[in-house]
Amino acid sequence: MKRTSWGWAVPIVALVAGFLFTLSATTAAGTVLREDRRLELAQLIERKQQDVHDLETRAADLRAQIDAMTTERGSTDSSVLAERLRGDALLQAAGLTELHGPGLTVRMNDSPRITDGTTLPDAVIDNYVIHQQDLQAVINALWAGGAEAVTIMNVRIINTSAVRCIGSVLLLEGRPYTPEYVIKAIGDPERMRTALQQSKGVKAFEDAVRDYGLRYSVTNEADIIAPAYRGSIDLRYAKVPEQ
């Protein structure tokens, strides 16, 4: 009985399969659907990156125009000049001017074991890549060690900067960055080294360096140049501290 029931079911299954195959071929129109989606995603990312670049260029032009107009007005208006001078005095502390001086360069990279086939059998791939908390631990330690300016991939970091990672890709000011991550900090090198050594988060990362082969180095620098911060300084939320 079972063999007989399958006898009439097979043609129906074959018919449905043929219909689905024809529908898929018509939809694809001679292309590979999965590859098309990957191509569209890559093109979307490229367009968005270009949009970010265009907006950054436009913002820089507007800042230059405002500076020129303020300077011109300040030459004849003492109140404008006074406010301009007061604002200029705060620019460096806010990270809005270029700064240079001695400091440290920290380099962080994924483990080469990801691609060379020597990963440990009982470990997951996440153990072999740089994570958001690793970057945050180093940056926070540098600030705690008295850093006057910090950059990641030559992008200035200020109080409102967000260090976010998707997988092992760093998203910073609308741009993606992949390892090797280079962090530079201007300040007293020895004081910042001590802060790195005392940080629990950095210690946890150093354990991963030992166990999984991630790469980490700290070197002294005689003169580091930290460019001015060029991102948005608008705040969505703010709270006045209690007196």
Which descriptors would you attach to this protein?
3-stranded antiparallel β-sheet; globular; 7 helices; alpha+beta; 5-stranded antiparallel β-sheet; disordered N terminus; 243 residues
Descriptive overview:
- By secondary structure, the protein is of the alpha+beta class.
- The protein has helices at 2-28, 33-74, 78-94, 113-116, 132-144, 189-198, 200-212; strands at residues 99-109, 149-152, 155-157, 164-166, 169-172, 175-177, 181-186, 215-226.
- Strands 3-2-7-1-8 form a 5-stranded antiparallel sheet, with helices on one face.
- The longest helix is centred in the N-terminal third of the chain and has 42 residues, at 33-74.
- The protein is globular.
- Residues 1-6 have low confidence and may be disordered.
Write the layout of secondary structure elements.
Elements: H1 2-28, H2 33-74, H3 78-94, E1 99-109, H4 113-116, H5 132-144, E2 149-152, E3 155-157, E4 164-166, E5 169-172, E6 175-177, E7 181-186, H6 189-198, H7 200-212, E8 215-226
Antiparallel strand pairs: 1-7, 1-8, 2-3, 2-7, 4-5, 5-6
Helix pairs in contact: 2-3, 5-6, 5-7
> In sequence order, what are the helices and strands, one letter per element?
HHHEHHEEEEEEHHE
Overall strand count: 8
Helix share, percent:
40-55%
Sheet/helix structural class: alpha+beta
The coarse silhouette is globular
What count of helical segments does DSSP give?
A: 7
Straight-line distance between termini: 88 Å
Q: What oligomerization state is this entry in?
A: single chain
Low-pLDDT sequence parts: 1-6
Main-sheet strand order equals: 3-2-7-1-8
Rg, Å, rounded: 27 Å
> Can you give the mean pLDDT?
80
Beta-strand share of residues: 15-25%
Largest sheet: 5 strands, antiparallel
